[in-house]
C-alpha cells in the first residue's frame, strides 16, 4: 500500500480497515495513493498485475492531484464484485474526497467494498 498522503496513524487505521474488509469478501485488497504515471487506468492495471494474487485481488488507485480513482478487480474477485458495485465504492469515496477527507473516503470505500463483495 502506497499512501504517502496519509499520516502514520491514518495508514495504520486503514490497514485495519483493509484486513476487516478482506475477511468479509475473501479477496486481497490493495490501495495506492499517489501520482499515476501516464493514463490512470493503464497505471492502475499495471499495479494490479504486480500483486501476488492478481486474480483474487482488488486494487484501489487514487491520484489526488488529478482527482482520479480507479478500481481494478481480478477475474476471481470480479465474480463477486460487479462494475456497478465498483461505481458505488468510487462514489462513496469521492463524496468524502470532495470534502477534503482522503482517509475517511478511503475508509468508507474499503468498508463498502468488503460489504458488497462478500460471499
Automatic annotation (TrEMBL):
InterPro entries, sorted: DUF5130
Domain of life: Bacteria
Protein name: Putative membrane protein YgcG
Organism lineage: Bacteria, Bacillati, Actinomycetota, Actinomycetes, Propionibacteriales
Amino acid at each position: 500500500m502506497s499512501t504517502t498522503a496519509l499520516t502514520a496513524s491514518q495508514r495504520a487505521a486503514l490497514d485495519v480497515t483493509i484486513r476487516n474488509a478482506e475477511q468479509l469478501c475473501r479477496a486481497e485488497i490493495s490501495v495506492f495513493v499517489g501520482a499515476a504515471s501516464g493514463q490512470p487506468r493503464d497505471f492502475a492495471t499495471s499495479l494490479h498485475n504486480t500483486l501476488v494474487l492478481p486474480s483474487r485481488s482488488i486494487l484501489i488507485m487514487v491520484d489526488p492531484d488529478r482527482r482520479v480513482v480507479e478500481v481494478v478487480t481480478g477475474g476471481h474477485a470480479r465474480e463477486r464484485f460487479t462494475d456497478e458495485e465498483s461505481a458505488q465504492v468510487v462514489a462513496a469515496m469521492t463524496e468524502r474526497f470532495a470534502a477534503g477527507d482522503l482517509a475517511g473516503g478511503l475508509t468508507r470505500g474499503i468498508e463498502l467494498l468488503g460489504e458488497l463483495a462478500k460471499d
